[in-house]
Amino acid sequence: PEAIKHGETGLLVNPGRADELSDAIVRLYEDPALRETLAKNGRDFVIANFDEREASKIAIDAYKEALAVRR
Prior knowledge:
The protein is mostly helical. The protein has three helices and no strands.
């Protein structure tokens, strides 16, 4: 959560809100400049604030959490 800042390093949606998720996906699909900006900002933030091991752990934990929610 500390790596994602809405509109700056990513887009956040509320849990269980499929409408918000679909809106965010469409927004990213339709706006390549926003995709590039969020990706660059996110990468820069992680490099500046986390070492490689910490960044990897955050990503793995996020995937595990996402997979657990789907079950």
